[in-house]
Amino acid sequence: MRRILLLGAALLMGATSAMAAPKIAPLPKSAWSAEQKAVAAQFSKGPGGNALATFIRFPQLVRGIYPLAGFLMADSTITARQRELLTLRTAWNCSSQYMWSYDVPRAKAAGLSDAEIARIAQGPDAKGWSPLEAALLRAADDLHKDSFISGPAWAVMAKALRRDQLVDATFTVTDMMQFAALYNSFGIEPDAGNTARLPSMAPHPPVGKRWHQALGTARIPQIAPKDFTDDIYRVFDPKRTGKEINRLYITYAHSKGLFEPRQIQSEHIRTHTSITDREKDMAILRITHQAMGDFPYSVHVAGARAKKEMTDEEITRLTKPGTAGWSAKEASLIKTADEIFAYDKVSDATWKAMKAHYSDQQILDIMVSASGYWMVGITGSTFAVQLPDGSERMPGTNRP
What percent of the chain has pLDDT over 90? Predict the structure, then answer.
């Protein structure tokens, strides 16, 4: 089960509604450097307020994760109403006080009434939703609970939405799950003037099972080479060598506005973080295995083996529960990935353990690596991107 018990989560994490002092405090605008001001102006479409003032401490991070968030929050192919339904349901699923308070005004601007906003917490089975809106809310629940959109929700969405809209809708949830984990872990407080708070009248959805059956046929096909656009070549094969483009990336490219900012985030994790390749791949393998994300697991396990970052025994141990056999430093990294996946938040105890070994920048980079590739695992499974023949599959029996 994705969450062993909600009670256990509450005991471990503490009540989300009780806002403790931020672990990383917002940086007052009066203290922003010229670089920070320029970065904030460049990525104004992403989350603002206390979130931006916190992330702006690390300008390279903003450059890496804000382009995708900005596209999904403002320019994606789904409607503003659909976007806010998905975002607020994700905020509620993740118990993200900051995200809820930040997006309620945006939801009202998109035309949602107070009654509809309150009803989002009641979920997809509440009366009043259209069939597509109910399916979108159910998809948000599925992605959060099982790292996969179930057949019934997908069938309704696929009938009503184009491929680019399916990609954008799925990424809206997964990207907001990443941001919710960051907000919750850092203790980012609601912005002044944003008075909305998470509803408490409806229980969280049943936790269900943390498992899904991988599909043997792609839900969204790859774009064929004959249909590659100049933008696809520019991002993935600028010299037009004719190399095979990653099947996952060329599936994302159905959304013309999404694939480049998503690639920026991927490149940030691969090349601009302050942690070692071993640490990065440990976080990625741990969380993608838990989410049953075959595609990124296969790619990164191959890379880890090729670079000899880990022994075969260590790779196997990353697929087992617990942290037995790891140093205290690496155990804290593994717990960070585990808690992001299970609780949408790094606990105070694990944060303290991380601080004994890592800087704030490194902790952020570990969290973004784990949550960013959780997103990749979820979307790869949901779109049913098929692995190339001969790929190493993760341990388990979820394959068709």
Answer: 88
